[in-house]
Automatic annotation (TrEMBL):
Keyword S-adenosyl-L-methionine assigned: yes
A GO biological process held by the record: rRNA base methylation
Binding annotation for S-adenosyl-L-methionine: R93, G125, D148, N228
GO cellular component, one term: nucleus
Alphabetized Gene3D superfamilies for the sequence: Vaccinia Virus protein VP39
Name of this chain's protein: U6 small nuclear RNA (adenine-(43)-N(6))-methyltransferase
Lineage of producing organism: Eukaryota, Viridiplantae, Streptophyta, Embryophyta, Tracheophyta
UniProt GO molecular function: methyltransferase activity
Pfam entry (one): Methyltransf_10
Start and end residues of each stretch annotated as Disordered: 1-20
UniProt keyword annotations, A-Z: Methyltransferase, S-adenosyl-L-methionine, Transferase
InterPro entries, A to Z: METTL16/PsiM, METTL16/RlmF, SAM-dependent_MTases_sf
Enzyme Commission no: 2.1.1.-
The organism of origin for this protein: Oryza meyeriana var. granulata
Length: 466
């Protein structure tokens, strides 16, 4: 999930590659061909002596015109933004859309409704460019609510939708400053006013603009939310990438506390809206922030957390996704070949993190995954037991790949603990985590759960190690 074949970086780590379904995965945009078709693009294209056509990516007018022709030529979308507004790069933004498509189609988190309705997304901070709704609707037929708070973003996002009558029924632009007054929201605001944490001014409560809570209406449900957050704490920090000019005003790029604060607010809102979304997602601009946000999502009680790295030219970006819905099918439908024992090492741990902390964190992970577990603190081990229902479903999918017709045959096969996790101190700062399969009929779920545990513990403890 989250990228095609991997390249290696100089330091040996895997670099992400363009998503295999990205329309530019096989071939980058052909500037010469686009210049011959679109006279307004031609002045921005120069051809080297070797015959290579390129544009000056430090020229805002050139990058905006490139985005305009790519959206028109490859997506049939009419599009424009005023000078200086953030100009999206179409191939990069498409990778995020395809990652969400992967999350939805993996069935990791089952659809909340059984109907075959159109996929419905919520784009937090859609911007004047409204890029994610336009891409999601034109590529995949998804419908969107796109929210924003600035007049220019709301005005231009609406213009971009209205310029595309073929998509306009699929996209609603919503002002996040005009929060809907759901009963739950009113209750929360009322309490905040009583506790003097919010100031009513002329009958209007002034606070930070809402992100999801109060903007999502009562009884609305979405398959996902997505967000390219304001990454920076100050416009100075935003700086300028001398190699490209993609515009971006302070309102678009900056918020108090930067992306960490913004995404933390999404995580807080997600707790109140846990049943309104299958997946909550956000882009993250800095790996250090991703490492801080993953534990926050776990602490919020998410049942599943996923991360990915996006290919994004010279700049690395990450995707963070989480859900509060029980991951029945992720656990159930695993074709991973099963080994009876698996293990991984945690190297370079800080002195205060030993086997006990890792054991506790593993316990939290199993609780969040709705798995029954029994911890033995003196042996540093946890026995995980599946409920009858979980075991039955896991076996059905592992053995037969289908849930039809086999329930009675399989029901009695699983009793007692299914697998055991043990933590061993190897030397100061190094722990070995071993998983042992106790019931071989559950090898698929053992394998997939152990892989997730590995990701979670590495993310949590190896980030703390630095
Ligand atoms: C980095 S821009 C992203 C624009 C566009 N989605 C893109 O990917 O190019 C962040 C956007 O978030 C908006 N924003 C800031 N606070 C917000 C809030 N509380 N609710 C919704 N949008 C907000 C900004 O106005 C800005 O348009």
């Amino acid at each position: 999930m989250g990228g095609g074949r991997k390249r290696r970086r100089r330091d040996g780590s895997e670099a992400p590659s363009i998503h295999p379904r990205n329309r530019y995965a096989a071939a980058a945009p052909d500037f010469a061909m686009l210049a011959s078709l679109y006279p307004s693009f031609a002045p921005f294209v120069s051809v080297s002596r070797g015959g290579r056509a390129s544009i000056d990516f430090t020229d805002f007018a050139a990058t905006r015109e490139l985005t305009r022709v790519l959206l028109l030529h490859d997506h049939g979308v009419n599009w424009w933004i005023p000078d200086g507004q953030l100009c999206p790069t179409v191939p990069n933004r498409s990778n995020y859309i395809h990652w969400i498509e992967d999350l939805l189609s993996s069935d990791l988190i089952p659809p909340t409704s059984s109907s075959n309705r159109t996929v419905r997304g919520f784009d937090i901070g859609t911007g004047a460019n409204c890029i994610y709704p336009l891409l999601g609707a034109s590529l995949l037929g998804w419908s969107f609510v796109g929210s924003d708070v600035t007049d220019v973003a709301l005005e231009w996002a609406k213009k971009n939708v209205e310029s595309n009558p073929q998509l306009s029924d699929l996209i609603e632009i919503r002002n996040a400053n005009k929060m809907s007054c759901s009963s739950e929201f009113e209750a929360v605001v009322g309490q905040a006013v009583r506790e003097n944490t919010l100031e009513p001014v002329d009958g209007v409560v002034r606070s930070k603009p809402s992100i999801l809570f109060g903007v999502v209406k009562d009884n609305e449900s979405f398959d996902f939310c997505m967000c390219n957050p304001p990454f920076f704490e100050s416009i100075e920090e935003a700086g300028l990438n001398p190699k490209t000019s993609c515009g971006g005003t302070a309102e678009e790029m900056v918020c108090p506390g930067g992306e960490q604060a913004f995404i933390t607010r999404i995580i807080e809102d997600s707790v109140s809206l846990k049943n309104s979304f299958r997946w909550f997602t956000s882009m993250v601009g800095r790996k250090a922030n991703l490492k801080l946000l993953v534990p926050k999502v776990h602490e919020a009680g998410a049942s599943v957390v996923k991360t990915t790295e996006f290919v994004q030219g010279q700049t690395a970006r990450w995707g963070l996704a989480w859900s509060f819905i029980a991951p029945s099918k992720m656990i159930i439908r695993s074709n991973t070949p099963g080994k009876a024992n698996r293990s991984f090492m945690l190297h370079g741990l800080r002195r205060e993190y030993g086997a006990f902390q890792v054991l506790k964190s593993a316990e939290t992970f199993f609780h969040a995954s709705n798995l029954l577990c029994k911890t033995n603190s003196s042996l540093f081990s946890i026995d995980i037991t599946l409920s009858d229902e979980q075991a039955q479903a896991a076996m059905l999918h592992d053995e037969y790949g289908s849930v039809e017709g086999n329930s009675t045959k399989l029901h009695s096969g699983v009793t007692g603990a299914s697998f055991r996790i043990s933590v061993f101190e190897q030397m100061p700062g190094t722990l070995l985590v071993r998983g042992s399969l106790l019931n071989k009929e559950l090898s698929g779920i053992f394998s997939s759960t152990f892989s997730q545990l590995e990701d979670t513990l590495k993310m949590e403890f190896l980030s703390k190690a630095r």
